[in-house]
Amino acid sequence: MNQFQPQNQVTGHFDRAAQEYFDWYNLPTPEGHSFRIRKTRCLELLKDVPAGSTVIDIGCGPGIMVEKLLNRGFKVVGLDIAPQMIKQCRTRFGQNPNASFAVASAQQIPCPNQSADVLLAMGLMEYLNDENLVLAEFTRVLKPGGITLITYPNYWSLSRIWDRITHLLAFPYLRLRRRNQTATVGVKHREYRLNQTLEALRHAGFNVTDVVFYNFKLALRPLDKWTPKFFVKLAEKLEPLARRPVWRQIGTGFILKAERPS
User: Fold this and answer.
1) By the 8 A CB rule, do 237 and 145 touch?
2) Mean pLDDT score of the chain, rounded to an integer?
3) Among 90, 114, 123, 141, which residue has the fewest nearby CB atoms (within 10 Å)?
4) Could you report the per-residue pLDDT of 51-98, keeping only the tens digit for each?
């Protein structure tokens, strides 16, 4: 199998981001809004899960979701490939008896078979080398009737289409500039078509029960940098498009809620 990218590169990237990751959620920018509304939508999709349920948050980062999940009476297991992210989780929530954390890969979840009521994967799938192997792990760990929430960057969002076009046009300049600078190691992420993800989940044995789009960003670069607060307000006004056919494709991301059959 060809690697999408070295996973130690992903680990290093998120280790370096651990200290500032929480701050990204407070930015008054379209990017900050995207983080916040993704979190809100995921919590809404968990509203019918009863207290006492076990939630495994895979790619939990520094514990963005943990406080809200604990407040709902859930037992939370946070897993992340980046040790510094798990260190942040333990600092914030390590004294809570209903929370536990471990450094772990999504391809080898350190939990028994059929031990989770909910599997949460926010900002995870787009960085992985083998998504099918991870979905098989989700199936193994989930109880029959358990649910998974998975977020995906939307390939057909207007802002992502514009970013691809401008990157293509600017590529010769960017390539020349990189030759004259010290190389920096970043990470790549995939973008997804809805039908592609639906098929992958069905193939893994899940029944998709809900699809929600989020972050209706109409600002094309560099407009989003010039007047960020205006475009955040506009995106908030457009949130009712979350489930509307055709129009929902404006969203920069979408969430699939899927159930493991009983």
Assistant:
1) no
2) 91
3) 114
4) 999 999 999 999 999 999 999 999 999 999 999 999 999 999 999 999
Strand partners, 149: 120, 257
Helix axes 228-237, 30-45, angle to 10 degrees: 30
Residue given tokens 């897993």 in the structure block = 79
Which residue from 141, 22, 5 is spatially nearest to 93, judged by alpha carbons?
Answer: 22
Structure tokens at 220: 């094309």
Q: Which helix (H) or strand (E) holds 255?
A: strand 253-259
Q: What is the CATH number of domain 7-259?
A: 3.40.50.150
Condensed to tens digits (0 to 9), the pLDDT of residues 89-146 reads 999 999 999 999 999 999 999 999 999 999 999 999 999 999 999 999 999 999 999 9
Distance CA 228, CA 231 (A): 5
